[in-house]
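Example record

One chain of 169 residues, shown exactly as stored in the release files.
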Amino acid sequence: MSAGDLAVLLAAVLCCIGFAALVVVLTRVLDTLRSLRAEIITLRAETRPLLRELHATTRQARDAVQEARHDLDRFDILLGSAEAISDAVAGGGRVARVALSAPVIKTAAIATGTRRAWRRFLRKDRDARRATRLPARTDGAAVRPHDDEPAVEAYEAAIDDLDDGQWSA
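Predicted structure tokens for this chain:
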């Protein structure tokens, strides 16, 4: 056997060993792929219900967000209306205050002045009537005006207090 034949024989043996190794490796890869395919099928079986539930939850969340947006839009419109009403009422109150403050103050002043003048008039009228008549005593003697004056003043002060509203029923 010559060196060339020996080289060809050695190359053929090495090719057979390499081919056998390649067959073993490919068999292992095929087994791994089959195992991987079984795991993928199991994973799909487990995740499909979860994905369906996720889709349903997402739809519910989307509907809730849409409803919240709709409610928020309605609330925004309502808030705008409330602000417009508040501004209108504030403007109306300011106009009413400016328009009515001077006449109301003048009316209150006139009423107070009239009440004071009326009291003075009544007081002068009472004083004039008191000065012209003398009260009678139980024993028949005449009484001078200054004898009963403190009691009359106290009575008139009580009447004035009632007129001022200091006494309530």
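Notes: The chain has two helices and no strands.
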